User: What shape does this take?
Amino acid sequence: MSPDLLDALDAGLAWLHDTPQPDDALAPFAAGLDTDTHHLAFNPAWRRVGQPRLPLIRLSATSFEPLADDELAAFGTVLAARVPVSASPTRDTWTLATDAHPSLLAAWDRALACPDHGLRKCDLRDDCPWRPTGRAALRLPVVAGRPVQLELFAA
Ligand SMILES: [Zn+2]
Assistant: This one.
């Protein structure tokens, strides 16, 4: 596995579990990290109906080619050597066995609705600063020289 992918994995895991978030941060999306060949997405609070919510990680290729089974299996092995893994709901996703940092989960929950307007996207209608301010406050994973995207994430 490439050093870049390992760096991205370690940055995402540090974000999920070890990065305290400010009290006004909003985490409405997963964090996505690219290497030259791969994309890793870290969802702090994925939930399958009837199951507890847990961090979910997805590995994909930056090209449109699907990843080979042996590459996905190798990634799963590396991941499981770093953190307890609960399950692999699909061939390219893994749920972790331990919750995201409580402050990240709080930022996730806060992002569901503005306390003043009750909407998730009130800045689009009411020019409310809640969402842009909260997103700016969110601490993101850090990988030198690599941008981080906030992204919708459906498993
Ligand atoms: Zn608002």
Residues 3-151 form one domain. The mean pLDDT is 91. The first helix runs from residue 3 to 18. Strands lie at 30-34, 38-46, 54-61, 85-87, 93-96, 148-151.
